[in-house]
Design goal:
Layout (H helix, E strand, L loop, with lengths): L6 H4 L12 E3 L15 E2 L10 H6 L1 E7 L3 E7 L5 E7 L6 H12 L9 E6 L4 E6 L6 H6 L11 H18 L17 E3 L5 E3 L34 H17 L4 E4 L4 E4 H10 L18 H14 L10 H9 L25
Antiparallel strand pairs: 1-3, 2-6, 3-4, 4-5, 5-7, 6-7, 8-9, 10-11
Helix pairs in contact: 5-6, 5-9, 6-8
Amino acid sequence: MNLCCSDHAASAKEPMKKSKKKELSMKEESSPSRRDENKIVFFEGDCNLAFDLEDLLSASSKILGKGSIGTTYKAALEDVTTVVVKRLKDVNVGKREFEQHMEIVGKIKHENVDALRAYYYSKDEKLVVYDYYHQGSVYSILHGKRGEGRTSIDWYSRLRIAIGTARGIAHIHTQQGGKLVHGNIKASNIFINSQGYGCVSDIGLTTLMSSIPSPGNRETGYYAPEVTNARKATHSSDVYSFGVLLLELLTRKTPIYYSSERGQAFHLVRWVKSVVREEWTSEVFDVELLRYSNIEEEMVMMLQIGMACAARRPDQRPKMAEVVRLIEGIHLENRSPSTESRSEASATTIYST
C-alpha cells in the first residue's frame, strides 16, 4: 500500500517531542470493536511509503484540534513520516456513498487544494489522511497564543493566503460537473503551501455528517444566513464563508468574537458593516497592518471584496471565479516592497505560483 506525501509534508518531519500530556496513540481512543478486514485506501502518488491501519493507529500522535466534523491528529510514523489524520464523527452515510465522495476528492489535483492521500471506512471508524503543513492552519497563525502558532503576519502574506484560497475554492467549484461544494470554509481548514499561498482542506466533509455546529460555536460565524443545514451548502454559501475569511484576515478577529471592553460577543460581518457605515473604515483593520505604509488602498479593496462576498442575499454575491479575478487585481502593478518601509514580503513574487 502506498501513501503519497508532497514536499511540504516532507519538510515537516521534525522529531516529535515526548510529552505524556500531549502525545498519545490514536489506538488508545479507538473502539475495540473497530477491527475488520477493511484496508486503508491510498491514492496514486509520487512516493511509496507503506503502512497499514495498525501502524497509523499506533503512531505517536498529537491532537491538533477538535471540531464539528471530528478530531484532527498529527501522526508521526516509525519511518519519521508525518501526516495529518482526521477521525470523523457522526458520519451519516453508508460505505458506498462515503467511498464515492472520497474518490471524487482524491482525484482533485491543484496547488491550492490540500490533497487527500488516503481514507479508511469501517462501521466504527472513519479516517481521512492528509499532508502535514508545518506552519499550521491560518486560524492558528491568526489567533493562536504567542509561541503556539500565532505569528506576526504582514500584508502580502495575507494577500497570498487570500489569493490561493480563492483559487482553490474556484477550482473545487468546477469539479463534478460544477456540482461540488466545499461546505465548510473557515480559517482552520486553510493551510499555507510551500509558495506561501492559501491551500484549502476538508472538501465536502459536511455532506457526510449527521450534525452541524450548535448555536454559539465560533464556526457558525462562517455560515451564510440561508444555511440552516451545513449538509445543504451551495457555491454561494461558500462565497459567503470566504468573505468572512477575508474580513478575518483584515481584522484578525474571529467570525464571532468577544469584546472584553464591551463585555459582549460580536458577529464579525455585522460589526464590519456597522463600522464602515459610520465611515470609520480604518478602525476595521488589524493594528499590525497599520505599521505598513502605502497599502491602505489595497486593504480597502480587499475589504470591499469581503463585504460583497458576505452579502446577505445569495444572488448579490459574486461567483468564485469573479472573486479570484478581483483579488488578483488588488495588487497594483507599479507597487513594490520598496514603497513599504517595513514590509517583509516580496510583492514582486505575489503571483509566482
